[in-house]
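Entry for the shared binder. Reason: the reviewer on the internal report wants the predicted structure included alongside the sequence.
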Amino acid sequence: MAIDRRRFLKASALQAVLVGTGSGMAGMGIVGCASHPGAAGVEPGTNPFRHGVASGDPLADRVVLWTRVSPDRNRMREPIEVGWWVSRDRLGSDVVASGRTRARPERDYTVKIDAGGLEPASDYYYGFESPTGSSPTGRTRTLPVGPVDHVRLAFASCANYPQGFFNAYSCIANRDDLDVVLHLGDYLYEYGNGEYGDGTPLGRIPDPIHEAIDLEDYRRRHATYKSDPDLQAAHARFPWITVWDDHESADNAYKNGAENHDADEGDWSTRKLAAILAYHEWMPIRELPTGLFRSFRFGDLVDLVMLDTRLHGRDAQPPSGDDAAARDPDRTLLGDDQTSWLLDRLSESNRDGVIWRVIGQQVVVAPLTGGTSFFNPDSWDGYRENRRQILDHLEQQEIDNVVFLTGDIHSAWAFDIPPAPGSGGTYDPATGKGARAVEFVAPAVSSPPLATSVHAHRLIDGIDERLPHLRYKNLEENGFVLLDLTPERVRAEFVFTDPVGRRSARSHGERAFETLSGSNHLSRQDSPAAVDDGEAARATRRTG
């Protein structure tokens, strides 16, 4: 039975609290999705909901809802009563779930609700109320069940606040054709202002101004990023599924340390736990006892597996050029338990007849060595036996249709993934035959593109000749990737934005690649220019 939202609020204990504070809610309307520059249809967060709203980790019957209530300076240690609602319509006249909770100081006044009792493959609107105001209205979507013929998502990574504007998020927010947004890590950067981008000229100085080290630092850094209107708009428009990479804690982090962590900054385990706690507080993520790695099923079409290649099981990176260490079978990127979990998920998905297996993770899977002594020790090249375990499992279990999605490297790439050396498999670069899987790598949202790095030449000089499995690269632009999945094929469209030195919602498409079901390799396709507002995609969805 539909619940009248105003009647619910009047009858709730929350209403009594609001009346007691002299701020009745009965006269408040739900804040609609008013437009703002660069992200159509979403109102940015206003006090006390200045960090907006978000949803994430959708399942067929539930989704995580998130917001933060900014406390009054005179009541910094007191909990704040919060009401929440989920409705089938934007105006909140058909409420299907609602409740009340408290924003507490020990959780930095963040609020997360795992709202259940929802219908599969359905759009919902949601929002929050406090004694002093209403949140923006967000939109979310549950996952489908049973036969599914189409899923469309965007994925992105590496957003550096002082380096530039989040134009990729603006372009994503302007679309209306996505089921979910994936973020593959480096959602924020720990550096102090000026250490990796000076935000002073753009008015984008991160808080705190120094490097984030303790819990309060990480909380304030998350707050800085969530203040961005384009990020708020993208969060409010679609549900997100996220994983961290290294910069949510410290550069080149691993299980027991990080390159950007010194002894005078304290104990690494304390810093790591602080970063993880702040991430869980500030992100719309379901907190599981097993950790960050988890999976999502989109009916019979897609199994999405999200990995933690950073903090869970990773051993320290080997020195670049130390081939013996990179091949050491005792060294791991995922950890034994996460590796076993991944292999089990892949086998289970294959047995269940799911068509595509998409793996969202952080660092490049495809070999980048190409016979040279130089390799990126932070990528899977530094953990080759762990990579071989996965690729051999795909061959032995006859598992096809595996698509790796990657961020981290501030550039766009498309690869066939050949068999691991010594596995007995062969790969024909002319036809793609013999490839075990494919990989798409997203460009950075606003971090400097790889081509601007003074060390990039060590990786990219002669790379087209060295890597026969490389199908595409763009090392010079920022952007994101659209991934379109049907039973017949997966198509990736690389979308690039205007330079991040100014705020813009313009984008262009340069290349698109497909992998056909059962082929395990890529073919190049023509790519139409990306539509800024997603109107063409909306029309396709309406008629398809």
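Summary line for the report: The chain has twelve helices and 24 strands.
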